[in-house]
Amino acid sequence: MSTPGLTVRKTWSQVEEIRLCAGSSDADGPLRKVAVCAVCTNPLAGQGYVADLSPLVDASAEIGTFLGTEAARLLDAPVESYGKGGLAGTDGEQEHVNAALTSVFGNAFRDAIGGGKAWITSATKVSAPGVVIDVPLAYKDEIWVRSHYDALEVRVPDAPLPGELVIIAAVTNRGRINARVGGLSADEARGGAS
Q1: Domain range holding 146?
Q2: pLDDT tens across 78-107, in order?
Q3: What residues form DSSP beta bridges with 150?
Q4: 147 near 190, Cβ under 8 Å?
């Protein structure tokens, strides 16, 4: 895949399924966490300070659609929570990967997974290849649903190279297993009885 501002060198996906927590399961079944990453060229790498980041912002819609579609496919269940993240290679800036994760990306990602009303949590940093990033997760329609506060550890073994970005979309099918810290429930957020 290639957009006017970003060329994808490769994609990387991971699926984690958690069946037990503290030795027990719960009635809602396994928790599936999916991350899909696009390893892209960074057209602004090595240029020093560049004020106009619009090439990255504009190109991110197509990436958001692609990552969201693939994440939902791999999840193989309705999406309940989501998050986004990114890594900039050492010839770029953290602001470069943030530009690829603005609302342009977020809106395309939301549309691809079937919608979402809450803002999308995110984390970004500059890194060498193979660095771990924890992508934060939250309920897609209401940020105050505590049962869905979580994270997914993501690591792409050979990325980002110095002139690359890793753009990450993450989704889950439910909240944490045996979540019990109170607060607004997902059912209440959907307008149902608790």
Answers
A1: 8-18+26-174
A2: 999 999 999 999 999 999 999 999 999 999
A3: 137
A4: no
CATH of the domain at 52: 3.30.1330.110
**Tens digit of each residue's pLDDT (9 = 90 or more) over 120-141:** 999 999 999 999 999 999 999 9
Q: Which amino acid is at 149?
A: Y
Q: Is residue 126 part of a domain?
A: yes
What proportion of the chain, given as a percentage, has pLDDT over 90? 84
The Cα 123–Cα 76 span in angstroms is: 25
Residue 186 in any domain: the answer is no
Q: Give the integer Cα–Cα distance in Å for 138 and 172.
A: 9
Question: Does the residue 66 lie in any domain?
Answer: yes
pTM of the model: 0.94
CA atoms within 13 A on the CB side of 128: 0
- Quick check: is 114 in a domain? yes
Amino acid at 118: A
